[in-house]
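A favour, since you know our structure tokens better than I do. It will help me judge whether the discrete encoding reads sensibly. The space below this message is yours for that.
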Amino acid sequence: MNPERRKELKRQYRNPPTAPYRTLRVVRVACLLAALLCAYFATPLSPFGEDHGIVFAVIGNILIIGAIVLDATKMRSLREEYIEEVLNSKTKESRKAQKAARAEERAKARQDQSTSVEDMLADESLSYWDRLKLSARLSAQAAQESPREK
């Protein structure tokens, strides 16, 4: 795949709509918000005073580094997997065409079946009772295939 197409796909699928990616994105945002809170507590204006400032600054930096590492490792791999999945999957148009072809085949098969049943019912060699039994059996099968909703 050419590099321009790759860049376009990266831009297009920057935030894949998958559950693991959303979970990691929430974790990353929580890390960044916690780092921001630690930065506030590291200032002299915090309610803890200046004594704990260095501890909060270190914790904030660790949280920022953790968010960056999370993004660079796990989230990037999930993005790449999603792009590969999209590239290897079939397009919507081809799936629609396949569904339409299958529906057409099913409709043709049903039509062929119904004409053969009509021929059987119109057959003069069957007695009245045999045709009646055949008709009842076919209507029972049709009712089982498509039950009515109440």
Summary: DSSP finds five helices and no strands in the chain. Helices lie at 3-12, 19-41, 53-88, 92-122, 128-145. The two ends are 54 Å apart (CA to CA). The first helix runs from residue 3 to 12.
